[in-house]
Write a structure and sequence with these properties.
With about 350 residues, the protein is an alpha/beta fold. Helices cover about 25% and strands about 30% of the residues. It contains 8 helices and 17 strands. A hairpin with a 7-residue loop joins β13 and β14.
Amino acid sequence: MERKKVVVGMSGGVDSSVAAWLLKEQGYDVIGVTMQIWQEEDNRFVEENGGCCGLSAVEDARRVAAKLEIPYYVMNFRKEFKEKVIDYFVDEYIHGRTPNPCIACNRYVKWESLLKRSIEIGADYIATGHYARIKELSNGRLTLRMSAASSKDQTYALYNLTQEQLRRTLMPVGGFHKDEIRAMADLAGLRIASKPDSQDICFVPDGDYASFIEKTAGKTAKPGNFVTPEGEILGRHKGIIHYTVGQRKGLGIALGYPVFVLEIRPETNEVVLGSSEEALSGCVRANRLNFMSVPKLTGEKRVWAKIRYNHKGAWCIVRMTGEDELVCEFEEPQRAAAPGQAVVLYDGEYVLGGGIITGGR
């Protein structure tokens, strides 16, 4: 019987390395691939600033592949990453929204582009080191189940995958906890067993989004007014790309009580500020929907919803308000429902679906 061939996306980190080891142990024909996405030609810059995608990541992944005795390649996805992730990231901030580049990268680069190229070289599946599990439900739909390690769960950033992408994907580490993964790496003799997890957005490793956006867009953000919801001027801001809905720190304005960013108005270059209570949203609207556990949502449904990656989640009633639009009415108001971020809906442990937040209140 011919072994199934799987391409494992290897970042040089412990999770993807153990994913490759597990799949080889399970009898798959494993090929390791690192996605070259950095835009700079300068090797020193890439080495110092590439994060999980830098040259050191390639060398770590290459060493792991050699240890596991599997073929290893570096595939160039610069063009796809620039168009689908960097350009999107910059455009969203310029238009007053808060993007999630990891969601875009997962859907359009790590899956759409890598999967296409992997199939072209004869692979049956792609695999990653994400903390999530794929489950086929009784209705025949494929969906994501939360990771066994709840603190590491990554289903939020994967809600946008299609049925075909899920059908062609393996996620071997989703049933384990992080300490178990590190122990397996040690057992396999992989030198990266104690390597720390990457934290920052890989293409903005210093966290200075505004400078990156200005450099990439080729223009400087224009200062404007901080205003109340009614339009009263409160002070001056540095440019809307410096702010996101729900932000409290770094505003550089003192009103005698804690203030939060309520709204960003790119058309008037205004940043709306308000109190803690005004920053709460009882409902959230979203579009650009993707459903997983069901083909579409009918009627009303009580679900658990997350409005950003590190949001603990909250109960809400969700219903469709248009062909590609839904509204979530939360049982308790939530803070920082930022347009541009995703709202992801859970039915128990399973991802029901999600979409991009357009607004709240």
